[in-house]
Specification:
This protein is α+β, with helices and mostly antiparallel strands and 182 residues long. The protein is built from two helices and 13 strands, in the order ββββββαββββββαβ. The strands form four sheets. It has a four-stranded antiparallel beta sheet, covered by helices on one side. Strand 3 and strand 4 form a beta hairpin. The termini are far apart.
Length: 182
């Protein structure tokens, strides 16, 4: 009897250690450790030495798509523990100078379009946020946390009750890269 299956193979670099317990994937590298649980997803993940096989037997359209999604998640985990991820945001203002401060797990955006109370933005996960004169740099090893923190900063400086074509003030992502400058 023939079987139909979709599978993808991931090669593990020498400086990365991967362990799989059931569908829980743990990746250890130079920058740190990432763990992700894929137990709710109807695909199989197997570890053979220095390769990971992600596959689905008799896949429907959804399962075939999930094989590629899980493959990308594991690749991002490997890249994160080896190099890390960096998002750079530019602070843009025309009339009122925006000041940004990092306090615990929140970012305070003060004097945005002349508002008296600061806007609060949540920092997701274990992410470092650095504020330079005109830039905000978001760095970390988990791509989802870094990108969500950058998106929170962008959405936290959204212009409300004014024409967005005229008031272009805000903090905008202008560069995404692998690797962190230290």
């Amino acid at each position: 009897m023939r079987t139909i299956e979709i599978s993808k193979i991931i090669q593990i670099p020498d400086d990365v250690e991967v362990t799989i317990e059931g569908k829980k994937v743990t990746v250890k590298g130079v920058k740190g450790t990432l763990t992700r649980d894929f137990s709710r997803i109807p695909i199989s993940i197997e570890l053979y030495g220095k390769t990971i096989r992600v596959w689905a037997e008799w896949p429907r359209k959804k399962e075939a798509a999930l094989v590629g999604t899980i493959y990308s998640h594991i690749q991002n985990m490997i890249t994160g523990v080896r190099k890390g991820f960096t998002y750079k945001l530019k602070i843009v203002f025309s009339h009122f100078p925006i000041s940004i401060k990092v306090k615990d797990k929140t970012i305070l955006v003060e004097n945005f379009t002349g508002e008296r109370s600061p806007r609060k933005v949540k920092i997701v996960g274990d992410v470092q946020v650095k504020v330079l004169s005109e830039d905000v740099i978001v760095q970390g090893i988990n791509l989802e946390d870094v990108s969500q923190t950058a998106a929170n900063i962008e959405q936290g400086t959204k212009v409300k009750k004014k024409d967005p074509r005229v008031f272009l003030d805000g903090v905008y992502v202008y560069e995404q890269s692998e690797g962190t400058e230290e």
